Amino acid sequence: MNILVLAAFPDSIPAFRGDLLKALVAAGHHVRVAAPGLAGAPETLRFLGSIGAEVLDVPMHRTGTNPLADLALLARLARLMRSLRPDAFLGYTAKPVIWGTLAAAMARVPRRYALITGLGYAFTGQRRGAVARLVGLLYRGALRFSHKVFFQNPDDEALFRGSGILPAYVPSVVVNGSGVDVVRFRPGAPCEGPASFLMIGRLLGDKGVREYVEAARRVRRLRPEARFRLAGWIDSNPDAIAPAELEEWIASGTVEFLGRLDDVRPAIASASVYVLPSYREGTPRTVLEAMAMGRAIVTTDAPGCRQTVAHGENGFLVPVRSAQALAGAMLRFLDDPGLAARMGARSRRIAEERYDVRKVNARMLAEMGFAGEPAVREAYV
Questions:
Q1: Are strands 88-92 and 172-174 parallel, antiparallel or unpaired?
Q2: Left, alpha or beta for 179 (phi > 0: left; psi -120 to 50: alpha)?
Q3: Domains contained in the chain, CATH given
Q4: Is the pLDDT confidence value at 381 over 50?
Q5: What is the distance between the alpha carbons of residues 16 and 5, in angstroms, rounded to a whole number?
Q6: pLDDT at 65 (0 to 100)
């Protein structure tokens, strides 16, 4: 089959969809990947070329809200699909799902699939009421033309069903996030010394980065030997923190800033506890990577995050927006030096049982009728 996959952020393709794309190619399909700015993403281009996928650069402003620009994007995508005549379309993240699905319907693409990887700023930001209603209307208009919708956690599926965004006649499936390569991300030696903490992600307010920094301040006042690292970058998202705010955190010595990492494994290996105080996720990939590497987790009791932690077994769940509760959970690791290693071992077992990317992708391919487990295994030979 000829399959068109539409993405909004080219740098995310190898890390977040690379294994799925490899599985599709291994199953014998002709895969085209369309995204904006691919010409300026050499690593993504090399990856897509190495697996045999065709590349299409499509202009798109992933965080823009100009309705005329979005309508122009819809027309552009419809023309593209009419010329390519794909057998199937898969879009993920908001704009590819909304405008890509509508364009696929206009172009009469026979099979149309959507992957909801999280609800993002529209549903968690400060203006979430008005923005969420608008985005919900756009999702509702597009998803009625889908043949199947994939969610990465049951809370998002329930929200879309309960609010009428997803019509009753459109099937949906919950998968265990994007999965994690449990061979590439494997446990290393336990960290020695006092507990050290790490957070990785875009530096957005709704990722809980301010709560992480405030919790670090509180913990360091009691236990100055604790180390707190932060890796990531300032995004174009309206919810991004200001550069001056980041500079203040670094200058005060509250956190050690690692910047944007091409390979997160050394940073995870050097931490004993991984922390993600996000307000809402699809299923956080960095948490799965830390679990696969045998690290204890502290995250929020929020959609997408809560599914990764069995409270008290492989980590702790804390309330959203509570730096105090976050600091309290961190202090438990400092008070019990062996706790991180015990919980980390449980994290690894959960990652192998539930989040192995081979199992996740086999489920997705089977649900789309593209292939099953044998083809996915072939992708990793």
A1: unpaired
A2: left
A3: 2-179+356-378 (3.40.50.2000), 196-354 (3.40.50.2000)
A4: no
A5: 13
A6: 72
Amino acid letter, residue 178: S
Q: Report which residue type is found at 260.
A: R
149 forms beta bridges with 114, 172
d(CA 89, CA 146): 10
Q: Rg for the chain (alpha carbons), in Å?
A: 21
Distance CA 103, CA 108 (A): 8
The conformation of residue 240, written as its DSSP 8-state character, comes to: B
Q: How many CA atoms lie within 13 A of 183 on its CB side?
A: 6
Cα–Cα distance for residue pair 167/275, rounded to 1 Å: 36
Residue whose structure tokens are 């199992």: 359
* SS3 label, residue 56: strand
- Find all residues with CB under 8 Å of 162, minimum gap 6, and list them: none
**Tens digit of each residue's pLDDT (9 = 90 or more) over 344-376:** 999 999 999 999 999 999 999 999 999 755 555
Sorted by sequence, the CB contacts under 8 Å of residue 108 that are 6+ apart come out as none
Provide the token pair at 134: 């608008």
Q: Tokens in use for 273? A: 């506890």
β-partners of residue 4 are 32, 89
> How far is 204 from 209, CA to CA, in rounded Å?
7
CA end-to-end distance (rounded Å), the chain? 22
- Statement: residue 126 has pLDDT above 90: no
Beta bridge partners of 296: 273
Residues found in the chain: 381
- List the one residue out of 362, 363, 327 whose CA is nearest residue 215: 327
Most distant CA pair in the chain: distance in Å? 64
- Reference 366, options 179, 110, 167, 150; nearest CA is 150
Alpha helices in the chain (DSSP H): 12, 18-26, 42-51, 67-84, 94-106, 120-124, 128-143, 154-162, 209-222, 243-251, 265-269, 285-292, 323-335, 339-354, 357-368, 373-378
For 52: left if phi > 0, alpha if psi spans -120 to 50, otherwise beta; the answer is left
